[in-house]
Amino acid sequence: MRLDKSKEVFDNTKRYIPGGVNSPVRAFKNLSITPPVISKGKGCRIFDIDGNEYIDFVLSWGAMILGHCDHDVVNRIKEVVEDQIAFGAPTEIEYKMAKLVCETAQIDMVRFVNSGTEATMTAVRLAKGYTGKKKIVKFAGCYHGHHDIFLKEAGSAVAELRLKGIDEDIVQNTIVVEYNNLDSVEKAFKENKDEIAAVIIEPVAGNMGVVPAKKEFLQALREICNLHGSLLIFDEVITGFRLSLKGARALYNVEPDLITFGKIIGGGLPCGAVGGKKEIMQCLAPQGNVFQAGTMSGNPIVMSAGYVTIKKLKENPHFYNNLEMLSGKLEKELTQVFSNSNLTFCINRVGSMLTIFFGVEKVENFEMAKMSDLDLFRSFAEYMIKNHIYVPSSQFEAFFLSVAHSENDVEKFVEVAEEFCSSKRK
């Protein structure tokens, strides 16, 4: 794999963009290779400016569930952009998109924003405005965006950085508890009686690697929030429309008060949303007094791309069955490869998202994730990328599959993983 042009462009970019990237995890900071500078994507493959081709298991961090440059999405974008780019005014596609999202995800109302971070910020402000309380509970290892209130013990790239610039006056109202540990949640409510506006959680965490919540744990969270007059917020920025049309909620049969969306909801374009119960959503301005605004929110191009994506998922329920089959095949065959190599490991998978942890046999929370063999994972990620399998460079991110992947793509992943194990035995 040659990365001459990528290195030149990436080095030049550092003169104008901090670290050469617009989001930290893209920098491959912990790897010894230059990040490939990507020039093209089609289906489950991406291509860099040096001419290297990769099978993509990152998929814009889960957003590209239909694969890159899906024909229907691209054609709709082309049609819309002839007449509409941005107005900062109502458009018909906003109505169509809102109706589709509400009916498909089975929620009452939705407000579109421009990113997952905006969605979670809005959800928490809405919870505080609705309840009149100031504090929120979040879980160590869960990443809800880059706002100060969420960066206490966050996952994703945050887990590998020492942070500065955080406003301690804001952070003091964020209570961090342990994922899948009910005692820590009950303790937080006991110590902060009548002060907690909401509990926010990734029902399937994707930012400490993939770590699913236990069903009984989420059910208990619902009961605790009901008991104390607090809202339960599911952050489904990653899992929304990925695990099912109803997201992770369908797996757990637990109904939150608010849900945040991102990634897939924009069809690959910048988008986020917060949705939920009508009585809460109506508190948003201009109907209520909880303020949120955004010039580009509900942008017609973004709404059109998202509409085609969700409509296509809704009209093709077999997509989810195929994703489950392929992802299960990947998990099963990787398990065999690593077992044959006498490696200690754990593969966490929920639907079409998974993470490989080396050096541990079980990961149920952030502390357990941090005990995994980070150096071995870095070696694995670097080897896979060098051999044209594009995977996350960080242990604390998820692998994803798309409807564009085939059994051959999965088999190629397993083949390269087996070569990696062989190289370690030599």
UniProtKB/TrEMBL annotation:
This is Glutamate-1-semialdehyde 2,1-aminomutase. Homodimer. It is an enzyme of class 5 (isomerase). CDD domains: OAT_like. Belongs to the class-III pyridoxal-phosphate-dependent aminotransferase family. HemL subfamily. The modification N6-(pyridoxal phosphate)lysine is found at residue 263. Pathway: Porphyrin-containing compound metabolism; protoporphyrin-IX biosynthesis; 5-aminolevulinate from L-glutamyl-tRNA(Glu): step 2/2. PROSITE patterns: AA_TRANSFER_CLASS_3 (PS00600). It comes from Caldicellulosiruptor diazotrophicus. Keywords: Cytoplasm, Isomerase, Porphyrin biosynthesis, Pyridoxal phosphate.
